[in-house]
Amino acid sequence: MTYLTTNPDLNARDEPTTREGALVYAVDGLLAATDPIGIIRDESLWYLGSALEGEDNLELVLTTGRDREIALRVLLRGEALTVGWGGELCEDPVVTTVVAAVPSLGEMVGLVDTELSRELRVSRRRRLFGGASEFHLLRHGCWTDLLRQGAPSSERNLKRAPHRTTLRTA
């Protein structure tokens, strides 16, 4: 289950709009199917109105470890959806993988599912949910280093990340 953060400084509102609630419910269902043991789901948080004030302004943070720099982030801002990796609340992700204008709920869930299915390379120490060591994301046929602000991955760092995986466990 994704959880609404209770920090009032991070939420402009207490209740989601209909569209925000539908997206949270749909992503939660997707995570229930792809992450049955609940590793991602138990770490997920959502924030209302943190990116911008107003309607349909939601941030979902699907954390893949204790460090937020490698979280999968979903931002619904008015009519636009941004999906990406890393970054701070109220800001764009460090690595943006897609920006969609006026997507349907099915399209939004499909974009999140694509990110959960994306190939990752991680170090032995990390094994996804351990300490920060190496974390690389495959996009457009190239590896991106998420721990180094989205820079292209070096051969040296890729050698330290021999394990190929995805966030999907189903």
Could you give a quick summary of the protein structure above?
The chain is α+β, with helices and mostly antiparallel strands. It has helices at 18-34, 105-117, 155-159; strands at residues 3-4, 45-48, 57-62, 72-77, 80-85, 95-101, 120-122, 135-139, 142-145, 151-152, 163-165.
Q: What structural class do you assign from the helix and strand content?
A: alpha+beta
- Sequence stretches where pLDDT stays below 50 over 5 or more residues: none
State mean pLDDT (0 to 100 scale).
Answer: 84
Helix percent band: 10-25%
If helices are DSSP runs of H or I spanning 4 or more residues, what is the number of helices? Answer: 3
Strand % is 25-35%
Rg: 15 Å
- What are the secondary-structure elements, in order, as H or E? EHEEEEEHEEEEHE
Structural summary, described in words:
This protein is α+β, with helices and mostly antiparallel strands. Helix content is 21%, strand content 28%. It contains three helices and eleven strands, in the order βαβββββαββββαβ. It has helices at residues 18-34, 105-117, 155-159; strands at 3-4, 45-48, 57-62, 72-77, 80-85, 95-101, 120-122, 135-139, 142-145, 151-152, 163-165. The strands form two sheets. A six-stranded mixed beta sheet has the order 1-2-3-4-5-6, with helices on one face. α1 packs parallel to α2. The model has no long low-confidence stretch (mean pLDDT 84).
